[in-house]
Amino acid sequence: MARKQATEEKQKSSARSSEKSRQAGEARRKQASRKREPAHKSAKSRNPVIRYFQETAEELRKVSWPTWEETVRLTVIVLGTTVVSAVFLGLLDLLFRELAALLV
Q1: Contact present, 86 and 94 (Cβ < 8 Å)
Q2: Is 94 within a domain?
Q3: Is residue 74 part of a domain?
Q4: Cα(57)–Cα(77) distance, rounded to whole angstroms?
Q5: Cα–Cα dist 97/102, whole Å
Q6: What sign for the dihedral angle of Cα 89, 90, 94, 100?
Q7: Phi then psi for 46, rounded to 5 degrees?
Q8: Domain hosting residue 86, numbered range
Q9: Tens-digit pLDDT profile for the chain (104 aa)?
Q10: What is the DSSP letter of 1?
Q11: Domain annotation covers residue 76
């Protein structure tokens, strides 16, 4: 019976130590992964001008570019809004010019 208890104690102790070592290993891996920088960041130049262009190119790769149809549609909307605004302001200018001519 004492032998059985000793064996069980040994197994429990072994399980606890393996659990602790597993947790310690995970903690070390987490720290190591925090310290490491992604490969693309280490390739950046120390020169600020070159780094600026590298970062700009990196950001342009992330951009979601519009399709040709979206570009045409949005361009037509902008041009239409510009024409309508120009006509409206032109009519207001004409109205105020006529009112000023009546006063003078």
Answers
A1: no
A2: yes
A3: yes
A4: 29
A5: 9
A6: positive
A7: -85, -20
A8: 67-104
A9: 666 666 677 676 666 666 777 777 777 766 766 655 555 555 778 899 999 999 999 999 999 999 999 999 999 999 999 999 999 999 999 999 999 999 98
A10: -
A11: yes
Contact 44, 54 (CB under 8 A): yes
The CA distance from 75 to 83, in Å, is 12
How many folded domains does the chain comprise? 1
Q: Which two tokens stand for residue 11?
A: 């197994």
The tokens for 81 are 């809004």
Would 80 be classed as within a structural domain? yes
Q: What is the pTM of this model?
A: 0.45
Residue 44 Ramachandran class (φ > 0 left, ψ -120 to 50 alpha, else beta): beta
Residue tagged 């995970």 (tokens)? 26
